[in-house]
């Protein structure tokens, strides 16, 4: 079971295709009963069809007062035609504008202001729109979604068309053009699929095609693909089934009927020969090789064995690709292989992001060597068992939220023809045998032609695989004044479609009753604290063992020590090799991970409730008997250095590093990266790891947070071996030094030659998370940049089309955290965006209204309905209570502050902590074209920094 629908939430680009076997779906009102048996796992649902062709699936879950709604339309980039590529994704953006009965801007603003969340996504085979709202806003979602599906096309204007063109271009720059390896998907598709194949272009498409889009194209696309017979509506959550049917009929029933769009049949491809292509990447800092082979579409019988083959080849210490490339060859810090099946075809990909300076010829040769060893040695029964056990836990986690249940049911219906196909899906995966895995390897991988891509730093062509030819990669030119002007507020002239049902905005329903879950907190004999919250919706348990420690205790010359220690503690125990530990965890269907953070060392995990005791035995062994293997330590050091090197190619990461360094300085731990620097990581030794472990991890500083289908008595019994063996004295945690306020605001600039976008970060140190002003300030700044309905997003994206998103915020920390305002903007509007930042921030307190405060109160109060849905949500909430020493009822206290806050307090609090003239600005972009504009904004010479945030004398 691939659970690919989870990727829908990542939105728009790089999404996996969905699943599509033929299946009988003629039953009009199916009832499926859930079962706890892994072989018959299913979801309750009722399915029926409206007279106009719309398929409706309902799932009732009254555990939380919220409702998730998704509308899946069976049209993705595969339905496009050459010359109009990227149109499905572009239309998704257009569909979030106004419709005949929903006012302009409401689609993007209203859901958030009602305390909900909403978005959409497009991939090769479909488009989805979704919302999660407190239950009182459910009918408003019905109004918005039905109007989008049936009554939006007449309202499309030329101004909206031109604005969304610019927004999508900004999205492409952010996700493709302005990041390392961003063009890889384009290169692979163009060479793997023949010209005209529906997968031969990317989801985002060609910018020239996008620029050429007309209103006639939009209307034609809508008429062809956006009929109700080509869509599935799923509603999951706290609903009454019969009342919901009446509501669905009222809002969706009058939409004009449509003929079903015929399904496309599988179009697998074969390569006659291998093709090797390269690209000199302006953003990459290390070379990357990908080997892509054509395989089968989703739900093909062989797709399950190919999926398992991908895990066996690269996942885990015993995996042949890992052993050959990482352990023996020391060519890269990691390797991945995976099967990716979509509606029409599939691919099997091996990816290696190699060490800096590594010649990719050696990587390709080592891959072939590893595959030959796999042919000879095969794999163990435990490998197969481990993968299947992990799938059971993965499924349960995948249906923890109502939104994910809606995704699951909708995708199975639209592509499998059966919302309950999950039972068959799991059965097929469980039925895969050793023989199946070796057979698909022989049939699809062994000695088969492939597409090989070498993406290397632009100044290191010697790293390219020998014989590779240059890939065609079209770089967009960012030209001043080239973007077309548009009127974002233009209104279309049309005659409203008559309906029998009154399509005016419906009122809110009864307000949901939101109560904070009752958390139990108790002491354990060895000094630990136990936090527990029962949650019996699913037979799983999530936990975090938090040890107050972390990077805050590192010496200046040991930066990254704790981060590396956390990784090392995952690599086996005194009695188990890394391979044996992986097997032990995997066979329980569990996940366990040790992580070293800024304030804590954490052991977190998920397991089936029935395996909690055995999982905690492994946690005890990992914590108390670390292996401290020299070979693994050196490998992890090399990996960390590689990742630090890669981070210098990421403009957002570069901006963040410089931002914290300049706000806090190098003497304050917050000013330096938790992951360390190239210099400090290089000097760390295994003895450094042992010293920190022995001196800085104590049960007196520890707490265990457990959420799931388990009692406190069961938890205490399961951790008894740990609490008996783990003893120690408290470790003192020093207070961080005070942060000096910014006396003179400065503008800093970092050059990324050829950058298509500029990253802008502005901010200042504000306050600790326990400061009495923290929550009032969090409330006060919300309408500046707290989401898509706030001023930054509405101005920079909706009104101007400069960006894909713009936000502000402050994190709740134990140190004086910064107030941050940030965005990535089109390069040629860097100056204009900076000026808008200054204006929107600087005038915010004066222009903040009672309506802003009322909207924020409504938004934040109702959003609490979404905070307690999953075990992951709950365990994180307990973790934060412990980390920040908050009262167990802190949410209720925050709500009281929110409800009683007057307008004057909100304005004064923002003015005190959000003063624009006390903010540093960090700009990361192309110096050749943008530095003159930054000089104009700064009114003095900007301070030049390198990619580590250090001062430069000159570029």
Automatic annotation (TrEMBL):
Keywords: Hydrolase, Metalloprotease, Protease, Zinc
Annotated stretches, region: Disordered: 21-41
Keyword Zinc tagged: yes
Domain Peptidase M16 N-terminal: 56-185, 540-665
Extent of Low complexity compositional bias: 23-37
Protease found in the keyword field: yes
One Pfam assignment: Peptidase_M16
InterPro entries attached to this UniProt entry: Metalloenz_LuxS/M16, Pept_M16_N, Peptidase_M16, Peptidase_M16_C
Domain Peptidase M16 C-terminal: 214-389, 684-860
Any single biological process term in GO: proteolysis
Xref: Gene3D superfamilies: Metalloenzyme, LuxS/M16 peptidase-like (3.30.830.10)
A molecular function GO annotation: metallopeptidase activity
Highest taxon of the lineage: Bacteria
Similarity comment: Belongs to the peptidase M16 family.
Official protein name in the record: Peptidase M16
Phylogenetic classification of the source organism: Bacteria, Pseudomonadati, Pseudomonadota, Gammaproteobacteria, Alteromonadales
